[in-house]
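[job 4471] stage=fold_predict status=RUNNING
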Amino acid sequence: MNLETLIEFIKITIISLEQDLEGLTEEMDLLDPESKDCKDLDIEYNFISGQVAGMRYILSQTQEG
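[job 4471] inference complete, writing structure tokens
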């Protein structure tokens, strides 16, 4: 895999993760904020948000160098 292919893969992954976040937000909006299900989704939301941040950092490093 060359660098350009890796960069495109990272961009696609970010888009996919952001779509996952949108879906989680929609699911959470339908639940009682104090429910266990909502809290579990919040943990998942934070986990995926961290993945997005990590991917964006890697992407920024490939574009600087």
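[job 4471] summary: DSSP finds two helices and no strands in the chain.
[job 4471] exit 0
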